[in-house]
Amino acid sequence: MNSPKSIECGEHGQMPWNGEVTCCKCERVFTTHDVSLATHAPMRCPCGARLMPKAIGGGKFSARLCCSECFAQRVQVPRGSA
Ligand SMILES: [Zn+2]
Ligand SMILES: [Zn+2]
After folding, report:
1. Distance 1 CA to ligand 1 centre (A)
2. Do the bridges between strand 20-23 and strand 29-31 make them parallel or antiparallel, or are there none, so unpaired?
3. Ligand nearest to the CA of residue 9, numbered in listed order
4. In this structure, which ligand is nearest to the CA of 16?
5. How far is the CA of 45 from the centre of ligand 2 (A)?
6. Residues within 5 A (CB) of ion ligand 1
7. What does the pLDDT profile of the chain (82 residues) look like in tens digits?
8. Cα separation of 73 and 82, whole Å?
9. Do the beta carbons of residue 31 and residue 18 sit within 8 Å?
10. How far is CA 69 from the centre of its chain?
11. CA 9 remoteness from chain centre
12. Which of 17, 30, 34, 51 is a plausible cystine mate for 7, CB 3.0–4.6 Å?
């Protein structure tokens, strides 16, 4: 249970996954791992898309897994409104 998940990133290949997600509408990045962070994923993205599923298996949502490298790149380069 403690072994880190890994994901296949389109840009970076096989990468460990630590709970990072990206909104597939606006490409903002969030983490689902640590609720104390400012980047913790809200239910609804600032762009208006529903980021997280309402219930397990229910509804459409915009969050897509992204690797820690993508997260680090995008979180440092805010796009659009500050
Ligand atoms: Zn968004
Ligand atoms: Zn990546």
Report:
1. 30
2. antiparallel
3. 2
4. 2
5. 20
6. 23, 25-26, 45, 47, 49
7. 555 689 999 999 999 999 999 999 999 999 998 999 999 999 999 999 999 988 777 688 999 999 999 999 998 655 555 5
8. 16
9. yes
10. 12
11. 12
12. 17
| Three-state SS letters, the chain | CCCCEEEEECCCEEEEECCEEEECCCCCEEECCCCCCCCECCCECCCCCECCCCECCECCCCEEECCHHHHHHHHHCCCCCC
Which residue has 């805010």 as its token pair? 78
Amino acid at 6: S
Token readout for 41 is 């994923």
C-alpha 40 to ligand 1 mean position (Å): 13
Alpha carbons within 13 A on the beta-carbon side of 60: 4
